[in-house]
Design goal:
Chain lengths: 271, 317
Amino acid sequence: MPEPVGFYTDTTVCIGCKACEVACHQWNALPARNGGQVPLSGQSYDNTTRFSDVDWRHVRFIEQFPEDRNGGRWLMMSDVCKHCVNAPCLEVCPTGSIVRTEFDTVYIQEPVCNGCRDCIAACPFGVIHISAEKHIAQKCTFCYDRLQVGLPPACAQACPTRSIQFGPIDELKQRAAERVAQLQAQGQTDAYLYGADDSILGGLNSFYLLLDRPEVYGLPSAVQARLPSRSVWPASLKAIGASLAVALGAFLSFGRRRDAVKATEGHTRSP
Amino acid sequence: MSPPSAPPSPTLNPYVADPGWHGYIVWYFFLGGIAAGAYVMAALADLFGTAADRRAVRPAYYLAFPLVNVCGILLILDLNRPERFWHMLIQSRTGWPMFKWWSPISVGSWGLTLFGGFSLASFLGVLAEDGRFGLRRFSDLAARLRTGWTGRLFALGGSLSAFFLGSYTGVLLGATNQPIWADTTWIGALFLASAASTGVAAMILADRLVGGEVDHRALESLERLDSYAIALELILLATLALSLGELGALAFGRWPGWLVPWVVVPFGLVLPLLLRRLPGRGAAVLAALFVLAGGFVLRYAFVYLPTAFYLVPGHHG
């Protein structure tokens, strides 16, 4: 059995080159969005702007500058499917199309998906989208075809600064913890790991070293990213309570009339 | 660019994509609610009511089966690969049943199928009892099966499957990470109460449309029951709003959420309660129409509620 693998993305060394986006497009034969007719977003260097059916990697550009442009910083991050340990998409998928692979990654089996889109509603990161071409759910496959022949995912291989690192998940976590310690020792006290522990959906197999709060990067907090099944029993019990209330109303409404009819019939029959 | 704006609440997740459950789903929730609500009331009348009540609820059995078929078609059309609809019930690779008890859509697919079976049997039963489509020779059998222990057991099973259909859609919305849907666990209960009120309203309307054949006392029972369901719906709506805490004002203060306090509550719930107090058939018909319209707007508002909170505009699935 292969070891669980993952991505560790060190955003402090991301230079926003988008080689990961290009490699992902190239390896997975993903076409340009809207036939290449993509208007400029006006959002820094980010014209990808979001995940889509053909954009499985998205490099975010966050400019943190004061009004007078004196000082400030760039934050860049290459975002991707988190391949969650407790994946909401996999949990809700009613057809069994979404599975966990032998590498502990989350994978959509294309011939099984019927495009119900429950996975889209469940994903807290906005990762999954419907393919305009295939009409099924699409997201990062973690280059499952490459993993099967011992190759790293295309994005990690293309990353020139090793911002995206691929490997056994335990090894990556150890490496990331050392990097945080190094940064903090250098005075970068805001450095921390997002998704490396089990606080978000049992852990993210694609986790990040960040320098600001998750929402600055467009990422949900541990409270905002929830497992769909958490609400099923509480909601079901409340629905059962409402059902009992309706049944009680029907019993009182119909039953009272039945008693009245019986009483009337009895009265009519009595001598 | 400036950093993305902070979410309006610590729990609400605005970073999700839109699943695009829109037009077909609104109609499915609405028509499925009517089918479930009408069937529930008919089955409960079979269990607890008089012979006149049982006659009064017959329109429900005529309504439920055609409606549940429309529901099935709507759900299939909503799939991006409609020809693979059967993957909901059968594993496409092995041919074994596909069932995940922790996935509301999976359980719902089986629940809808089960309800389809109950509503088909009831539909055939009333056709036979009424001697339609050459089924008169089965009328005695149908009448016997509708009474006694077999009838009670069937009504119990049918009402349970209808209760499920009326509420699981709301449970399903909660089992996501979508804004507002995921922030309350009361939508299923609310949809159930709305299913009950719209189901009864549809029965009352059906009776009026075919000439008011129902015994007026039985109809009074139904109208009283509808008023009770509306009152329950009002209580559950208030509870749901309170359960959202600070998000309640946000959810119901902007489009399309404001449809709930400004359209559903005054016109779909309170006005029908007032109209019921007026004498005459016109008022009863008007009340039923308002209940049905309110039920539709309620489903519309809840289905579209998350779209008001996405941080990336046009972030469609």
